[in-house]
Design goal:
The protein is an alpha/beta fold. It has a domain of 187 residues: NAD(P)-binding Rossmann-like Domain (Rossmann fold, 3-Layer(aba) Sandwich). The chain has 11 helices and 12 strands. This is Nucleoside-diphosphate sugar epimerase.
Length: 291
């Protein structure tokens, strides 16, 4: 039976596909364009073009599936992020009921335990709660803050010597490499069915923005310092990134929760795991200095 990957061209989904194919497992990737479909076929996977908003397309894509990898697509361009998330999750649930899928592996997030006032993290709460009336095995991975999120500011940091951050520069927060998340997801998809679980995954230690800036400085040879964006500037900065009013509001709520130090692992009723990739290893793998 098929392992089906929603978001197979995404940061984590693409690596789940690669890991499964490397292990010889059958894979069908779901993507949103013909170009991405062809790229998947070239890797040796089945490929299906479908939009998560299209329920009938989801039904067709999930046929003959046994294990299903799902995400909640995050976009700052939505005018109602939570309503859009609910619609997508409803489509997943509807399509699963009309398929042979027996196991769900979903990418949630640390902080998914909060049911209100957590902004974008509510998407993960909704994901985990969406299948409570379903008999399929349900596995959710709650990753820590991705190392890769910092890469959006790398070039500017090297050019200006300043790494902007919404977090207090000396606040350690759990972080993890996306590749480690994908490796865990790929490991959990095959095999026999078991009990539903939530896995919380973070790297070998926590890092602060100051430590990220120091790592940037070390690998680039340039001086880099972290600087916190004042709270009164958050709305302007986030909307300037192209976020809608709703996207900005939810991003701010999420960021406030993380910055408060409350959005760490729950460690109650979950399986807590530490991955091996350090921030320094991630930067070396991503930037490949000297090549």
């Amino acid at each position: 039976m098929m392992n089906i990957i929603v978001g197979a061209s995404g940061q984590v989904g693409s690596m789940v596909v690669e890991n499964l194919l490397k292990d010889g497992a059958p894979v069908r990737g779901i993507v949103r364009s013909e170009e991405k479909r062809i790229a998947l076929l070239d890797k040796g996977a089945e490929a299906f073009v479908a939009d998560a908003h299209d329920r009938e397309a989801m039904i067709r894509a999930f046929q003959d599936g046994r294990a299903l990898f799902i995400i909640t697509p995050e976009s700052g361009q939505s005018n109602d992020i939570l309503a859009e998330t609910k619609a997508i999750l409803d489509n997943y649930r509807f399509a699963i009921r009309r398929s042979s899928v027996q196991k769900i592996v979903g990418i949630s997030s640390m902080g998914a335990q909060f049911s209100e006032n957590s902004g974008n993290l509510l998407m993960s709460f909704m994901l985990e709660q969406n299948f409570t009336d379903s008999e399929v095995e349900q596995i959710f991975i709650r990753p820590a803050y991705y190392f890769s999120n910092w890469m959006m500011g790398y070039d500017e940091a090297i050019r200006t010597g300043v790494l902007p951050t919404f977090f207090p520069p000396d606040l350690p927060i759990p972080m993890v490499a996306p590749a480690d998340v994908a490796a865990l997801a790929a490991k959990l998809m095959p095999g026999g069915l078991g009990a539903s679980k939530i896995y919380e995954l973070e790297g070998p230690r926590q890092y602060s923005a100051d430590e990220v800036a120091a790592a940037f400085a070390k690998i680039s040879g340039k001086e880099v310092k972290a600087r916190q964006i004042p709270r009164e500037e958050w709305e302007q900065v986030i909307s300037g990134m192209g976020f809608t009013a709703d996207g900005t509001r939810n991003f701010i709520q999420m960021t406030e929760l993380v910055a408060s130090g409350q959005a760490g692992p729950q460690k109650q009723g979950t399986v807590w795991l530490q991955a091996e990739t350090t921030l320094e290893d991630f930067l070396l793998q991503t930037l490949k200095p000297g090549k």
